[in-house]
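User: Fold both of these, please.

Assistant: Here is the first one.
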Amino acid sequence: VQMGAVKKVNSFLTMESENYEGTMDPAQVPEHWPQEGEIKIHDLCVRYENNLKPVLKHVKAYIKPGQKVGICGRTGSGKSSLSLAFFRMVDIFDGKIVIDGIDISKLPLHTLRSRLSIILQDPILFSGSIRFNLDPECKCTDDRLWEALEIAQLKNMVKSLPGGLDAVVTEGGENFSVGQRQLFCLARAFVRKSSILIMDEATASIDMATENILQKVVMTAFADRTVVTIAHR
């Protein structure tokens, strides 16, 4: 057994549990929150562990509803740490993020993470069907799913597959190209109807043609949504 693996296991065993419940009752959160997509970042300070130095210090920003904002910086400058802060996956030890008037530190984690959308550099698909990957809670009609696929320019490809929406997706989506997986993630974000979309290096691993599709969709289908794009260029 490698010592690095043992240390990693020990770090998980000693890690403090997340404040899953928050201080707000889920019933207090408006049904369609966040409806506007307004983001206020007040003196945000972030670190990964209590004994580590801050990776972000006193960050301030105001993002208007529906605004498209780009965050650029060199590798290691804290860009992805900011995206993780929106989902409370890092320790916000000072300052706060307020979305549509609610301090996200008060929200139950499931509520927070289910109401925002994110597209990462490495697109994630799950073993199952295309339908499950677009709408895991089975809340949407087939028409809505086909609309999302058409917007992401995947409709014809999915229609050609045996089963259509019920076509098989292998573990990690390995039966699709990286570009196709990223477009599936974009379609999933559209289906969720979240007013806020975080794109963390979403175009770093895809070809130029797919990047052009993604950028076009963001500026049209997501025209009324707040989009925060994080990139190194």
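And the second sequence with its predicted structure:
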Amino acid sequence: MAIEIVEVTELRGRAWVIDGDTIDIAGTRIRLAGIDAPEMDHPHGRKAKWALVNLCRGHEIRAVLDGDFSYERSVATCYLPDGRDLSAEMVRAGMAVDRPRFSRGKYAGLEPEGIRRKLWRCDARQKGRMPPRLPD
């Protein structure tokens, strides 16, 4: 009997959301391709996670694996049943930013104006690198 080894290039299933740019489908950790969302200890981290939870809730997610790995996670472009790209939806919602090094700018035009500054300032303030905003 011959054993055939098949490369998995696509996964489908319910997603367990880990954070704003990471899901788990059937035990496989998946990094959403081309974007970066705030970490859970960031002021917007929980908001980003819940935005992704709300997008995935009740849906089978299709993950097209690209063969890359990031911090022990498979990198994939993930789609909702209606064909919407989860990365694009997270960027459009202002819960993640485009990572041009990995996306070639695919999502840059979807970023709400000022979102990078907003996320950076929040993170800097939390880590004590920027004074809190003083009242006018």
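The first helix runs from residue 45 to 56.
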